[in-house]
Amino acid sequence: MVLKGITKRWILNSLGSIIIILIVLECFLAFFIHSFFYNGVEQTLLNKSISLVNVFPNYKEESQKDFASKAKAYIFVFEDKSLMELQAFNNNDEVLITSTGFLPQGDQITNDYFIAKASEGHRGLFTGYMSSGEKIMSQTIAIYSTNGEYMGAIRYIVSLKSIDNTIFWSVLGAITVGLAILLFVIMSGSYFIKSIVNPIREIGKTARKIALGDFNARIDKSYDDEVGELCDTVNYMARKLGESEKMKNEFISSISHELRTPLTAIKGWGETIQLSEEKDIEMNKKGLNVIVHEAERLCGLVEELLDFSRMQDGRIILSLDKIDILAELGEAVYMFNDRAKSEGKSLIYSEPPMLSPVLGDRNRLRQVFINVIDNALKYTPQGGTVSVKVREDSGYIYIIVSDTGCGIPSVHLPYVKEKFYKANTTQKGSGIGLAVANELIQLHSGTLKIESEENVGTVVTISIPIAK
Predict the structure, then answer these.
(1) pTM to 2 decimals?
(2) Cβ-based neighbour number of residue 429 at 10 Å
(3) What is d(CA 8, CA 226) in angstroms, rounded to the nearest whole number?
(4) Which of 41, 128, 280, 322 has a CA 20 to 30 Å removed from the CA of 434?
(5) How far out from the chain centre does Cα 291 lie?
(6) Do 55 and 89 fall within a single domain?
(7) Chain segment 82-97, per-residue pLDDT in tens
(8) Is residue 281 part of a domain?
(9) Residue 420: helix, strand or coil by DSSP?
(10) Which domain holds residue 148?
């Protein structure tokens, strides 16, 4: 694993925390084991010393001779000589007898003896090393007579060598278990991190390919989890970007053709008029009409592109006022009367006597009506009918434009209001008219709804709230 990114964070945060927790637990466990065994030894010494109450009842010894004889008898019958050593001291701090039968060489008296003589409980405990270097735990019980005279002491000595060995191996076992847990965490964590890091690296590589224009790049989904969901999202993004790129290219091709057609007509008629030697007034008039018509068409295309650009940047600004929507709709319908007649189509407008005013931009609403009616006529064959109806209901004004045209296939219907999308590529148009119209209606707090059935016709319903 390369120590960077998520791997580095995991090592510093998760693994670091686990190591610290394990160290704390190991230290606590070692302390507990040490305390457990040492407290056990201390408790054993204490339990053994309880029997001294019976050997020296109420500490009423009258003489050193009686004390010495009882001490020797006690040591002689002591059952746990194999576990600990016993020593008996007289009142001169001298060892009278030991359970081993050998008197200690040199100064073997430790602090527990002096503590027992000085303390009120007549008991002293010592843990440490003897002069020989052996680690022991010793307990001394001082014996006093009823008049307070020091008679002697009984001392219990336990070697801690075997106890320390037991503690060492117990702590070593705990450390081994801790290391095994740490190794398991590292191995499982490494596998888990790789299962995240490797797919993310693949996602990064694929995303860079997509950013460079390779919209066919895809990520193989290996896990059905959040990482797999991210892979699906990136693949979906690539697919949508590819579709957008395709639509954009088709749009550029289409708009280029749309712009070239009127330019070709203008250029052709301009050259014809310029090179004409005879002053043919009718021909010149016809040519100028074509030039004006095509120039208006060019202006419309350019204005549509500008509106689309403003829409993309959020720069479309409405000049709102209370307006009579019938006036704008009637003007839009009137503009297409001649065209409908010349193309052999029926344009029927059912105008109600009166409607409530709406708060809107008259020019933008007229632009929407023109776009919708133009599309209806464009996709309606000769002999077909385009009807425009208006009604008011529940605080809204509804403009319904229906046609008996070719209709829109159901597979294309959800996307016809998207930018650059053209359901029928055989017809002229930029593919952004409906997108701009839909945006304008939404800016008026209204909706633009399209219903269509292939080979039957299309119904566009525009709803705009009335002015409050």
Answers:
(1) 0.48
(2) 21
(3) 21
(4) 322
(5) 60
(6) yes
(7) 888 888 888 888 888 8
(8) yes
(9) coil
(10) 51-159
